[in-house]
Every structure is written in structure tokens, then in C-alpha cells.
Write a structure and sequence with these properties.
Number of domains: 1
Structural class: alpha/beta
Order of helices and strands: EHHEHEHEHHEHHEHHEHEH
Bound molecules: phosphoenolpyruvate
Helix content: 40-55%
CATH topology: TIM Barrel
Shape: globular
Number of strands: 8
Strand order of the largest sheet: 1-2-3-4-5-6-7-8
Largest sheet: 8 strands, parallel, barrel
Strand content: 5-15%
Radius of gyration: 17 Å
CATH architecture: Alpha-Beta Barrel
């Protein structure tokens, strides 16, 4: 059984104080359910073990960088895992405003988002820089969530698969650690992000199946079958169940709905219900 990973990308929202409150509320809400989470078991060794359905869901929150240390402290004894929204590929040096993997690890990050479409469209991220970040991060204990997805233009001109293939092939070039213990892929159609217009389950499944097929060609069927492919793009408490019920959808990367416990919790519940 594949893992299901539900990750909240808070983007540039909340103050540190609001963030601690939200993170604690998410952790407490999960703890008060009878669901079980895989408490902080993200070492490569534990990920390699075959999970049961009960301990197969991981919940991640990715607050702004200014909040990581304080939220890392606040959730460290809970089942919620901490992630960052970006990482640099160098170990250290003259890279004003950037964050290294060692800095992220030091404050308790186990995850990092790489190549989000907002980084690509507004801040010059390319498939090549995604690859540089990825080659670096797979040498650490931080697990990457690599975002790929087509714009509306590309979908309308029937280039979705070509875009996904290019992003995956260049982004993962030379990266060997995929499969259960490695790289998570988030399929995020750009036209669905923050628009309230999610992909239909059919559109999501078609793209996810294509991505898994590509991973299979690149790494072999066993690895592809075990690789988590999240869906992201206006996932909410109403559509999470039907999206996660798709055969190749293994959880979600959630923007807006992760900022409210009452909206995020039903999405987590949907992951447990599959
Ligand atoms: C995202 O930014 O990754 C995202 C999926 O946002 P939203 O859920 O708000 O569409």
C-alpha cells in the first residue's frame, strides 16, 4: 500500500503567533480523532517498512521560513511533520535571503517543497534549478515534494503530457532516490491553484497515471508503483474524497484550505478514508 501524504503550503500567510496557533490546532485536532498517524517516522529505514493502512498517512505543514523554528518546537511531540517552502542547492555561502538544508534540518524540517508554480512563474524557477535543488536535497534527510503541472494554455493546446514529461525528465535528471523513501511528486495544474477550479477526478487520474507511467519508464515499475504522487489545486473539504479515491492520487498539497483547521481536517480525514 502506498503512503498518502497531506501537506499544507501556507505560502506567505500568518504571523508567527498565528502560525503557532494554527499548527497546534491542527496537531490537537488530529490527536483528538481516532485516526492514527505515523508519528515522526520519516527516517529512510521506517519508510522502507511495509506500512499498515492505519499508519500510512503523513500530515505535513509548510509555514513561512520565519516561523519554522518556533513551530518546529511547538509540534515536535505531535504527529504533524514540518516542511519548508524552498531550499537552496549550496551548503552555505553568499546567497542573500536563501536557506540551506542544514538550516532547515536544524529547526526540525523533514520536508521541503521544490518547484512550486508560484516560484516558477514569479521568481524564475526553472526545471534546471529544480534539478539542482533536488540533487542536493536527496543527499540529506529532508524529503522533497516536487511540483509539476501545466498552465491553462498548455492544457488547451493539448500539451499537458509534453509539459509533465519535460518537467519530470529535467527535474529528476540524475536523481536516483525515488520510490517509497524518496521524492514525492505533486501534480499541480497551474490553472487549478488558488482558483477554486479543481481538476476533475478524471483529469487528475489521467495526469497521475501518465506521471506514474513515466516514472516506471525512468526507474522501473516497482519504484513507480511505490512513489507518492499528490494532487494539488483547489483541493478542499468537498472534493478531497473523490480526488483521493482516484487510483493514482496519493494525498494532496493544499494551499488555501490548509490555513483553516475546519477545512484542512476533512482533507486529512479523506486521506485516512481511502
Ligand atoms: C498550492 O499552492 O500548492 C495549492 C494547491 O493552492 P490551493 O490549494 O490554494 O489551490
Amino acid at each position: 500500500m502506498r503512503e498518502r501524504i497531506v501537506a499544507g503550503n501556507w505560502k506567505m500567510n500568518t504571523t508567527p503567533q498565528e502560525g503557532v496557533k494554527l499548527a497546534c490546532a491542527v496537531a490537537e485536532a488530529i490527536a483528538s480523532t481516532n485516526w492514527q498517524t505515523r508519528a515522526s517516522a520519516s527516517s529512510a529505514e521506517s519508510r522502507r517498512q511495509t506500512p499498515s493502512s492505519a499508519d500510512n498517512v503523513t500530515v505535513v505543514i509548510c509555514p513561512p521560513a520565519t516561523h519554522l523554528a518556533i513551530i518546529g518546537e511547538a509540534v515536535k511531540s505531535s504527529s504533524v511533520e514540518l516542511g519548508a517552502q524552498n531550499v537552496h542547492w549550496a551548503d552555505k555561502g553568499a546567497y542573500t535571503s536563501e536557506l540551506s538544508s542544514a538550516m532547515l534540518e536544524a529547526v526540525g524540517c523533514k520536508w521541503v517543497i521544490i518547484g512550486h508554480s508560484e516560484r516558477r512563474s514569479m521568481f524564475g524557477e526553472t526545471d534546471e534549478t529544480v534539478n539542482m535543488r533536488l540533487r542536493h536535497i536527496v543527499k540529506t534527510d529532508i524529503r522533497p515534494i516536487v511540483c509539476i503541472g501545466e498552465t491553462l494554455d498548455k492544457r488547451q493546446s493539448e500539451q499537458t503530457f509534453a509539459v509533465l514529461e519535460q518537467q519530470l525528465k529535467v527535474g529528476l535528471d540524475g536523481v536516483e532516490l525515488v520510490g517509497r523513501e524518496g521524492v514525492v511528486i505533486a501534480y499541480e495544474p497551474v490553472w487549478a491553484i488558488g482558483t477554486g477550479l479543481n481538476a476533475t477526478p478524471e483529469q487528475a487520474q489521467e495526469a497521475h497515471r501518465f506521471i506514474r507511467g513515466l516514472l516506471s519508464k525512468m526507474y522501473g515499475k516497482d519504484i513507480a508503483d511505490n512513489n507518492v504522487i499528490q494532487y494539488g489545486g483547489s483541493m478542499n473539504e468537498k472534493n478531497a474524497n473523490e480526488l483521493m479515491a482516484c487510483q493514482d492520487v496519493d494525498g494532496g498539497l493544499i494551499g488555501g484550505a490548509s490555513l483553516r483547521v475546519d477545512k484542512f481536517l476533512p482533507i486529512i480525514k479523506a486521506a485516512y478514508s481511502q
